[in-house]
Amino acid sequence: MDVTAADPDTVLDALDRRLVCALQVNGRAGAGRIAEVLGVSARTVTRRLTRLQQTGLVRVVRMPAVEDAAVGALLLRIRVLRGKADTVAQALADRPDVPFVDVMLGGQEIGAVMLSDAGARDRLLYGRLPATTAVAETTAHAVLHAFARADQWRSGHLGEAEAAALAEPGPARPAPGGVLLDELDRALLDRLGEDARQSHAALAAAVGTPESTVRRRLHRLDGAGLVRTHTTVDPRLLGLAVDANLWLDVPPGRLAAVGAALARHRQVHGVFATSGPANLMAAVFCPDHAGLYRFVTDTLGPLGVGRAETTIVARAVKRAGVPLRRPRTRT
């Protein structure tokens, strides 16, 4: 049996983990600013970040503007025939409207997030998936409310004062009707979707526009909440070996309070009220299986959760629109 494991040669040390957390707080923070907050040299920060990015261990990308679009997004649970998980997961990961794809432990379930219009949704759910002989069953849960999103998760390797010093002021809420984007805006956002740490100069060269124009445009887009970033890193490199989805049955009168409480928990990287048999889904990182047990007993227990179904991620295929390299396998 194949067992995936993080390469021991790429385990992050304490400073690397602090750098990752700095990028989680502010994905576009400059090396000088990070160095000042962390108390190390800018040269060290630049060298470390270059290594982390060039080796593919860390990627910082622009998140889609989904603060409101998250409501109505679909959380898919797709049961597949044994041996077909990789094929189906890759087909889903190839879709631009599916930013998150996971293969669950056991290899017969795939978890995915779909952000799409009704037409594309229906073509996938009622056409392509049923027509695929590898798919045994598909369950779609609509997101009714987002308590916490993946881009808001912090690994906890910075103090509160350090995180506050790195954080950008919150963007103003976009005006009704959203922001009108022209061709240059879309080109800049597309570039940031591939690498959100590109400098103003690099972006200006890429789109053939003066750097001053790029700065002005990004300031406007950031103020509209369109330059939110997500730092993608294998959680095992941060000492978090278990990634689990908890499908929870919560009394309706307690749903808001339980969702808000879980959203504040350091180990939780996503909480959504959903349609379906379970009315709340929480995604949680734990150091090990014993840590997951403690989370269920010590955190969920006192919250009065009626029922909890636990599914464990065996392999993350795509996160925040970023396809992930497959970890080295051992037989």
Automatic annotation (TrEMBL):
Keyword Transcription in annotation: yes
Membrane spanning stretches: none
Source taxon at top rank: Bacteria
All residue ranges annotated as the HTH asnC-type domain in the record: 181-241
Name of the protein in question: Lrp/AsnC family transcriptional regulator
PANTHER family linked: LEUCINE-RESPONSIVE REGULATORY PROTEIN, TRANSCRIPTIONAL REGULATOR AZLB
Pfam family of the protein (one): AsnC_trans_reg
Entries under InterPro entries matching the protein: ArsR-like_HTH, AsnC-type_HTH_dom, Dimeric_a/b-barrel, Tscrpt_reg_AsnC-like, Tscrpt_reg_AsnC/Lrp_C, WH-like_DNA-bd_sf, WH_DNA-bd_sf
Keywords of the record: DNA-binding, Transcription, Transcription regulation
SUPFAM superfamilies according to UniProt: Dimeric alpha+beta barrel, Winged helix' DNA-binding domain
Keyword DNA-binding: yes
